[in-house]
């Protein structure tokens, strides 16, 4: 095994925080480590909306390449950014205990605009999932694209004539940047695996063994169920799919949904199953959802994508 263990990470403050958690946990197990920052495609292009970039793994590809080229030994990702199918030669090594799963609304003045469903407001987000859910609840609101790292997005919110912007709760709280003027959107279903940190490797036994103590079994199960749901619905960056699996009193509570891009169409499902019968929950829930209106939404999204002009 290469020592010190080289930990690949994006260069943003949040990514470095996540990689440092992995570094600290490995060093607690007695392993020497070093951080290797790598710039990702998603950090370079800050103007194009994520759902228009036309690729999966926009925040993970550069790290995956470095891993396969033996420039790093493990890579640390926000698990929600990772495609459901890992590249050949890369394996899941550990899923850390999950942080907050919900989204957060950061507002500039007050929340009066939330009191009237038919009111008008401008909300910023680059997430097609957040956009669709927001428009489903507030159909008259306007959505503006907002890209960049957390600091950049907070600064831009302050500069622009917007009412609010949506962030991941875990992202802001982990680097102590949650503003006082913010509230948890507990009605907004999160992205599959939101709030979870994933460690991947080339599958070498020594590295897998080193990472094993970092793995949280409950988080690994819940995120796998959510990602099975996403995979079965053939979801990607351009598909507004949400899922959340939680363990409570020996049962799995699962909620999943898919919406049209404009938020007008919505199909959702909820399941409660004993923990010992939960393995296929994500796949089964997705298949049932497709039969209950989800297929129509998926087909309409695909048709719209095929009809869209090809960008040079």
Automatic annotation (TrEMBL):
Function field: Tetrapolymerization of the monopyrrole PBG into the hydroxymethylbilane pre-uroporphyrinogen in several discrete steps.
Keyword list, A-Z: Porphyrin biosynthesis, Transferase
GO molecular function, one term: hydroxymethylbilane synthase activity
UniProt-listed InterPro entries: HemC, Porphobilin_deaminase_cofac_BS, Porphobilin_deaminase_N, Porphobilinogen_deaminase_C, Porphobilinogen_deaminase_C_sf
Record-linked PANTHER family: PORPHOBILINOGEN DEAMINASE
Record protein name field: Hydroxymethylbilane synthase
Lineage, top ranks: Bacteria, Pseudomonadati, Bacteroidota, Chitinophagia, Chitinophagales
Gene3D superfamilies linked: Periplasmic binding protein-like II, Porphobilinogen deaminase, C-terminal domain
Biological processes, Gene Ontology terms: heme biosynthetic process
Source organism (scientific name): Puia dinghuensis
Enzyme Commission identifier(s): 2.5.1.61
GO CC list: cytoplasm
């Amino acid at each position: 095994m290469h020592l010190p263990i080289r930990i690949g990470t994006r260069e943003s403050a949040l990514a470095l925080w996540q990689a440092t958690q992995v570094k600290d946990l490995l060093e607690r197990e007695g392993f020497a480590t070093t951080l290797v920052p790598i710039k990702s495609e998603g950090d370079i292009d800050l103007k194009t909306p994520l759902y228009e970039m036309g690729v999966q793994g926009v925040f993970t590809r550069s790290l995956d390449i470095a891993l396969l080229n033996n420039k790093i030994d493990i890579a640390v990702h926000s698990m929600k950014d990772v495609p459901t199918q890992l590249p050949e030669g890369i394996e899941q090594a550990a899923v850390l205990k999950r942080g907050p799963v919900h989204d957060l609304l950061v507002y500039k003045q007050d929340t009066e605009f939330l009191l009237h469903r038919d009111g008008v407001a401008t909300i910023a987000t680059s997430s097609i999932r957040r956009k669709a859910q927001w428009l489903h609840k507030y159909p008259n609101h306007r959505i503006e694209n907002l890209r960049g790292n957390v600091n950049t997005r907070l600064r831009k919110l302050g500069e622009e004539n917007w009412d609010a912007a949506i962030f991941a709760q875990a992202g802001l709280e982990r680097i102590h940047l949650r503003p006082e003027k913010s509230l948890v959107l507990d009605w907004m279903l999160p992205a599959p695996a939101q709030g979870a940190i994933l460690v991947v490797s080339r599958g070498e036994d020594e590295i897998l063994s080193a990472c094993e103590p970092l793995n949280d079994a409950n988080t690994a199960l819940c995120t796998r169920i959510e990602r099975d749901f996403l995979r079965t619905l053939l979801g990607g960056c351009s598909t507004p799919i949400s899922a959340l699996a939680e363990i409570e009193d020996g049962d799995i509570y699962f909620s999943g949904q898919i919406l049209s891009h404009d938020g007008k169409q919505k199909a959702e499902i909820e399941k409660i199953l004993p923990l010992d019968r939960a393995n296929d929950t994500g796949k089964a829930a997705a298949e049932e959802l497709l039969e209950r209106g989800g297929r129509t939404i998926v087909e309409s999204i695909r048709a719209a994508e095929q009809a869209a002009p090809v960008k040079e």
